[in-house]
Amino acid sequence: MRLSNWRLSAFALPCLPLAALGLPLVVYLPEYYANDLGLNLSIVGATFMMVRIVDIMIDPFIGAAMDRYRSRFGRFRPAMLLGAPLLAIGTYMLFMAQKGIGPAYLIFWLTVTYFAYSLVVIAHAAWASGLSGDYDQRSRVYSFWQVGNIVGMIMVLTLPTVLEKVYGNSHGQGIQAMGWFIVILLPLAIGFAARTVGEPILTTTPKPSGLGVYFGLFRNSEVRRILVVDLAMGLAPGITSALFFFFFEQVKGMSKGQAGLLLLLYFLAGLAGAPLWNALSKRIGKHKTLAAACLLYTVTQTALVFVPPQPVWLLGIGLVLAGLPYSAPGVMLRSMMADVGDEERLRTGADRTGLLYALFSGTSKIGYALAVGVSFIGLDMVGFHAVSGMQNSASALLGLQIFYVGVPGLLGLLATIVVLGYRLDGPRHAQIRDALALRDGATIAEG
Asked: How far apart are CA 160 and CA 173, in angstroms?
């Protein structure tokens, strides 16, 4: 089934506030809590890392609950509607924090926010997998999903810059404006998508599900490959996001405003790349397209360290080239996991969509948790000073460059090698869908 651009746009609308939250959680908030609110750099890094890792333990239960749940509204839309208000409250508390808060405050509200974020994001990604069973149409669905994510990032990135230029707002006021943007838009976007776009409704009795089934999915070699690549390509940009302002201010000599514009340019390039990767996948397949994007990321990310700070337009070109591959992993990996879901359903007779996308949520969280935790703790160990105005030694700046450029480049190369071994291509998926059409006794309707 081919959904209209209008319905796919409505479906992707919640990506705007979700991405607008996901980006500051990695890029802005750790730096803000360490720099502006005065928490210790290692404490901030460890808190973001540990809360994220603990949150991963909840994902299997969220996925299993979605797979067991049956209603006339579907499995995934109710979960999104349930998580939206809790996520809005957690967002408000994190973004409106004032000086004087301690680690306990950060731990509690990060825990609340991450739980609600997981509930909504897993449900949204799993909902997308059922909107089409076609190999190429799934990539189209996730292309809209990824475009929504990038547009949300761009919108939230422009807020501090616009407010600073027009109203003279401080950096802290810009962070608060991001929070208000998310809090207001989140329930409106989720409510509109849930009302506008249907969801495949399973009327069959759910199969038993739990931790055993969750970990059993790792026996599927294609699942393992997808998760390894997702971890690598989540950790790599997670590190660059967490260290972006440190790198371009301390190493390249940019102001915070200039660095913000460069980051905006990076995501604009990612937005432009989304339809290009989708078109390429129709020609050479999803996993080959993903391998090409990972290799391009490796080359362009590594090259950034050699780009001189002046003229600025050279850095701009470097950020554009590094940003072009950004959208490919998000689109291709989730579309590939939907195909694996069909393979699992043919093999076991059970729909494990919720658990499969809970696995995705887990690897993404590990990647971003390690990105903030390892990079911040590592910088602290090499003597890097995050507080504005403090000078850093040459060895501290070298450590920053290794973390920002070298580590992500190696992760991109690892992802390229791993994904080339993937075997569930278009012809194989067509055979699986044909077999499912002949065998499945499940009645699926659209709600």
From this structure: 8
